[in-house]
Amino acid sequence: METHKISIGLDIGTTKIVAMVGRQNDYGKLEILGVGKSKSLGVHRGVVNNITQTIQSIQQAVQEAEAASGEKIEEVTVGIAGQHIRSLQHSDYITRSNSELVINDEDIDCLINQVHKLVMLPGEEIIHVLPQEYKVDGQAEIKEPIGMYGGRLEANFHVVVGQVSSIRNIGRCVKSAGLGLDGITLEPLASANAVLSQEEKEAGVALIDIGGGTTDLAIFRDGIIRHTAVIPFGGNVITEDIKEGCSIIEKQAELLKIKFGSTWPGENKDNEIVSIPGLRGREPKEITLKNLSKIIHARVVEIIEQVYVEIKNYGHEEQKKKLIAGIVLTGGGSQLKHLKQLVEYITGMDTRIGYPNEHLAGGSDEEVTSPLFATAVGLVMEGLKHQEKKQQEKEDVVKELEDSNEDDATAGADEPVVDTSKRRQKSFLDRLTERVKDFLDNAE
Questions:
Q1: Is the pLDDT of residue 210 over 60?
Q2: Using an 8 Å Cβ cutoff, are 39 and 57 in contact?
Q3: Which of 23, 38, 372, 407 is least buried, going by the fewest C-beta atoms within 10 A?
Q4: DSSP 101-122
């Protein structure tokens, strides 16, 4: 049996940093070999604000994952999120010089490269360019234009934009922690891959990933990503509110939230009280669960309403864009009691909690299938996909060389014809990763 390649996902979050080691088993499912997590100290709202602390946290998580999995970790796939991420819709077209030839990969590359020339705000850079649907000579709703005849090729794109410096800082942290960068991915996309089924993506679904510092949204319809947004609040602001509202320290607030918190104040009786030890020599504090739930409720409603505005921006209210599969909640914040009911109440959309077990091998550890790890699982999957693609490219190149050598032998001095359809287009993320790598190498 061949050895299965391993892949490492590194989720640099606001509350925790997770390193997860996984590989594909014989049935094509994902097997998690080990997980390491550490408290994230240098990240605020999804953005690195203290490089030294972040490096230490990454190293700690990686060491733990190495110990748990028995594998040496060299390269990782990281996720980026943060309040600087925004997305826009854009359409663009090219006029082909020779409409006698069918449309091939190069034409699509040409079109995508054109989108990359869009002028952004200073300091911003395009992270993903995702084609939605194509038009050929005015014929609309074409999913795959390769192989068709046509003079004018146009497409609608979903363009995700982020801040260059934030992306470079993440690259910097990974590199300084002694790791190679295998790939960079948008976190909401990674979580979506881990949690959503293909049917949901077809029917139309909004994935809401409630993290510590940010809440990420990814909307799919007809199997294509349609909208992404990062909202700069998450579970931490709820903890903050409890801390302020009850005048207790953060650690206690976090525990209260996890153990007793609910998003629905109506279910708590007035006489349910938790007593919290006072600080050194002070009286213990008594907090009613009803008040606790009221504080949580107020903040959660605010977060969900912001997300709902984004869902409406996408156009959920139009018949053609309706999200039939409703909403899927994931991330640590999705574990708040009664959240599902509250979200259904505010948005009127079907809601479920998403566990990242869509692609995991059976018998996976309870812990790994928790919504907390959705992003990490998605990053591991992304890494495996990336490796497969690299493997495929290598094989294609080898095959091309062999073919052209045979052609040389038969055709005498004719030039070898290289079939361009075999050249896989480098996705922009690969290019971004290379750019970040180059930038870091030169900056040393």
A1: yes
A2: yes
A3: 407
A4: SPP-HHHHHHHHHHHHTPPPPT
Tokens 């290379």 label which residue? Answer: 434
Percent of the chain whose pLDDT exceeds 90: 57
Residue 198 CA to residue 203 CA, distance in Å, equals 9
Mean pLDDT across 131-148? 91
Q: Which residue has the tokens 């000579």?
A: 137
Q: Where are the alpha helices (DSSP H) in 231-373?
A: 235-246, 250-260, 289-314, 339-347
Report the alpha-carbon distance of residue 331 to residue 181 in Å, rounded: 24
Please tell me the distance from the alpha carbon of residue 58 to that of residue 37, in angstroms, as a whole number.
8
- The predicted model scores a pTM of 0.86
Q: For the chain, list the domains and their CATH numbers.
A: 235-299 (3.30.420.40)
pLDDT digits (tens, 9 = 90+) for 251-294: 999 999 999 999 998 888 888 899 988 888 888 899 999 999 99
Contact status, residue 379 vs residue 77, Cβ threshold 8 Å: yes
Contacts with 386 (C-beta within 8 Å, 6 or more apart), sequence order: 7, 77, 182, 183, 430
252 Cα distance to chain centroid: 30
Instruction: Determine if residue 204 is left, alpha or beta; phi over 0 gives left, psi from -120 to 50 gives alpha, anything else beta.
Output: left
Residue 266's Cβ-count burial label (10 Å; 0-12, 13-18, 19+) is exposed
Encoded tokens for 259? 């153990």
Residue 377 structure tokens: 């699982």
| DSSP SS3 for 444 | coil
Tokens (6 digits) for 151: 């003079």
pLDDT tens per residue, range 308-337: 999 999 888 888 889 999 999 999 999 999
- Beta carbons within 10 angstroms of residue 75's beta carbon: 17
Residues 6+ apart with CB under 8 A from 190: 9, 11, 79, 374, 375, 378, 379, 381, 382
The SS3 assignment for 263 reads coil
Residue 326, sorted as left (phi over 0), alpha (psi -120 to 50) or beta, turns out to be left
Task: Say whether 355 sits in a helix, a strand or coil.
Answer: coil
Measure the CA–CA gap between 323 and 317, rounded to whole angstroms. Answer: 9
Q: How confident is the model at residue 3 (pLDDT cuts 50, 70, 90)?
A: low
Distance from C-alpha of 177 to C-alpha of 375, rounded to nearest angstrom: 20
Two structure tokens written together for 76? 């990782």
- What is d(CA 381, CA 378) in angstroms, rounded to the nearest whole number? 5
Q: What tokens were used for 329?
A: 């909640």
Tokens standing for 192? 């979506």
